[in-house]
Amino acid sequence: MSSGPHGPLSITEVTSKAQMARFIRLPMTLNAADPAWIPPLISERQAALSAKSNPFFEHAEVQFWIASRDGRDVGRISAQIDALSPTDPQAPAGNFGMIAAEDDAEVFAALLATAEAWLKARGCVTALGPFNLSINEEVGLLVDGFDTPPMVMMGHDPAYVGGQIEAQGYAKAKDIYAYLSKMSDDMPPAVLRRVRRGPAPGVTLRMLDMKRYDAEVAALTDILNDAWSGNWGFTPTTEAETRQLAKSLRAVIDHRMVWFAEIDGETAGFVAALPNLNEAIADLGGKLAPFGWAKLLWRLKVARVKSIRVPLMGVKRKFASTHRGQVLPFQLIDAAATQARALGYEWCEMSWILEDNVAMRNICERAGARVYKTYRIYQKALV
Hints:
Layout: E1 2-3, E2 8-13, H1 17-30, H2 42-48, E3 60-69, E4 72-82, E5 93-101, H3 105-121, E6 126-129, E7 131-132, E8 138-139, E9 141-144, H4 161-166, E10 171-182, H5 189-196, E11 203-207, H6 213-227, H7 239-249, E12 258-263, E13 266-275, H8 277-281, H9 292-303, E14 307-315, H10 317-320, H11 323-342, E15 347-354, H12 358-366, E16 370-381
Parallel strand pairs: 5-6, 14-15
Antiparallel strand pairs: 1-2, 2-3, 3-4, 4-5, 6-16, 7-8, 9-16, 10-15, 10-16, 11-12, 12-13, 13-14
């Protein structure tokens, strides 16, 4: 506990449902005046931060804290150690996340010091973050692109947060990008001509089969873990985590915008585009009751939102360097984009993509997309 300009600052572990409710709602208060802020669905946040419903907790240790002053919540943070994350046994790393606070150096210092002490007590010598909660969920702090709202499953932070974190000794580890393109814009003519020739012999493209939903999700997980295994910070997605995500998205997913590719009968790649749920919930204040569900489904299924996000795409590594495999990402993007245009979507975000993932960045840029948001992962040695 320390003294601030208005009174003592206290840091409290979140141990009850009431405290978790405060933890979830705090960013809504902090960001209420930001026109680009979109309140998340409270029910979704409750599920994401609960060990009862989020399989991430099966392989990770997690703690949450709230900072308060004068009877008012002024900040929050989490710390977590994921047993599946790659780490140097001689220099174990842990993560912080869920960081949100007033523009007050004392609050940021106290929150980060608390998370760092928790990580150090468990043997970590490096802190990385923010991860909310996993590298396979919301990742990084927004450092560029504050003037536009985030798309589904992407974060949004006030412009001052990066400076406050850096003031506590954190430096950039990696930047990750969100790319944006107009659906009316197409691939360069040379790329498009190659794509529109049709699949090579032995290659087939198909939509997601909702009747085989669970099997399709399992296939997607297999490709994802194989295709992304060489990326910095890669942490495998468990089948339980993918099943939970698929279950939560089943009501809003459109099978016409999820495509698989097969090579010689083997599932080789996929692309998944999701309607931008954030566009549909922007005015719901985080609540679905009493009429939020009706509004949400109407906007997604009838009136339709105008944007989509591609959060997942991959080609198995054994195919990626082959002629047929190199064309697959563009064929999959074209198949999903053709359907999206027919359904009236106008914008597409492809995210998130590591700054040094040159292959994926080239695909995005050759598909006509441009970087419009940058998120930063920070690191600090715990000495």
